[in-house]
Design a protein that fits this description.
single chain; 306 residues; mainly alpha; two-stranded antiparallel sheet; globular
Length: 306
Amino acid sequence: MPTEKQLKKQLQNGKMIESEEEMTEGYKEALKTILLVSGDTELMSAPAYYDQSLNAPSIDARASCVSVIQDELGHGHIAYRLLEDLGEDREELVYEREPHEFRNTYGFDQHIENFAELVTAHGIFDRAGMVLLGDIYENTSYAPWKRALTKVEKEEQFHLRHGETWMRRLANKSDKTHAKLQDAVDWMFPIGVEWFGMEDDKKRNTEQLDYRIKGKSNDELRQDWLSRTLPLMDELDLDVPAHYDEAADEYVLEYDLPIAFDQENKDWRFEESISWSDVMDRWRARGPANEKYVNMIQSGKVDVQV
């Protein structure tokens, strides 16, 4: 078995990992951490999307929304199945944890309260997921996850197209529907920015990069997401606190990270300076819909006799 340092060097040179027997303890723990966040995020997006899928304006739209939910449950299953190979119990992960123990991204701890918010979540949150998983698909050293993401990536493309299509329809339908879309973007866009975590110059733990479980840093991933999100916002005449800086040849935020969030009113306080420790505390405390969404999943268990 190589040392941690030797394995990191081998992985940076292109080595792929196929099984637990090839892993050091450090690699295994780093992989389990990101798989759990991925599985929990996919799973919790399903109840978050559920209520408003029933309010879709047509049968076709509802069928598409339900299809997205089915996909997300399947994506969660893939991550938990991979965790089983690493010694975790899938049943325990899904049904026996307390709501605050889930590690999904913060966006899926929020109440999604109308159809405009639902399709904006597809357009903003699913795009963030695509950027993260697309990087892993391209660069990861863990071969079983790379193979599994072939299917996931295609389905996430559908979620994104669904969200963008409906965002265009609502943006162009009337002033009222455009305003609803803007309201959704106002609270979801900063969550999308925050999705990628601490800036590179403040981040101390680089294990997932060192083990090449993922290939891009937080700032690189955030730039990818901004470069794909801002053109859509411009097209739909939706205001966001970010723009492309030609001189710097990059997308820049018009506020300093991180910022405070009033989760009860879905209101970002851009002038209130906080630390990343404050953000971590908010994430660990979970959001206002956390218990409801976990209960929806856990109460859905049924015993089937064959």
